[in-house]
Amino acid sequence: GLGWTDRNLFFHVPMWFAMYALMGISVFWSGVYLVRPQIEADWRARESAVVAVFFGLLGLLTGIVWSRVTWAEALPDSDPQAWWGWDPKQTFALIALLMYGAYFLLRQAAREVALRARLAAVYNVIATALVVPLTFFLPRYLGGLHPGAEGSPAFRAEDLSAAHRVLFYLAVLGFVALGVWIWQLRLRIAALEAQLTSDRSPLGEVA
To answer: With 0-12 CB in 10 A as exposed, 13-18 as middle and 19+ as buried, what is 198?
Structure first.
């Protein structure tokens, strides 16, 4: 079982759900931009990607701490003080976040606004299409200690009681809602900054 560390379940996993939700919002607006090129869609895609990476980093960090505590017993030959064990799930999660880091670097590389938005939108669609199999499907077939991997001893369905399941689902909803709220705040801030610099909001009316 998870023992006392099961408290982290209500933070670590919901953070990843929030990341996936914000990535979904981001790629949606990137798709909107490719269909109907308007700078508002690009800004919405960018801001949701920022929040997605924020929750992804939190999820990765809490996962590193959690694995250091709980996986040492399952890996008797490993260094109990090691913070990184190259588990497939962890490794692919890091790769996914680096891919999104490249998204922001790409945005900095292009100076022309329309070109930057178009390149970013195309990259965002491709990156998101790769992130899901990299972090969700592929690790399931490569084995490892992370829950969900084939042969993983780290987690079983019976580790969660009915009450814990309800709390877990509420935590997922809460973190997703928090992510959307932060995204909306960032949109408002971006709109205000644009108004201060050009007397015109590129996001229009942001609710």
So the answer is: exposed
Give pLDDT tens digits for 116-125: 999 999 999 9
- pLDDT under 50 in the chain at which residues? 150-154, 199-201, 205-207
Alpha-carbon distance of 149 to 151, in angstroms, equals 6
Q: How many structural domains does the chain have?
A: 1
CB 31, CB 190: distance < 8 Å: no
User: What global pTM score does this model have?
Assistant: 0.82
Give whole-number Cα distances, 158 to 1, 2, 120, 150, 174, in Å. Answer: 8, 11, 43, 17, 24
Helix boundaries (H) for 71-161: 88-109, 113-132, 138-142
Task: Evaluate whether residue 86 is within a structural domain.
Answer: yes
Could you tell me if residue 203 is inside a domain?
Answer: no
Query: Contact 117/32 with Cβ under 8 angstroms?
Result: no
* Residues spanned by the domain of 180: 3-198
Task: Indicate whether 120 belongs to any domain.
Answer: yes
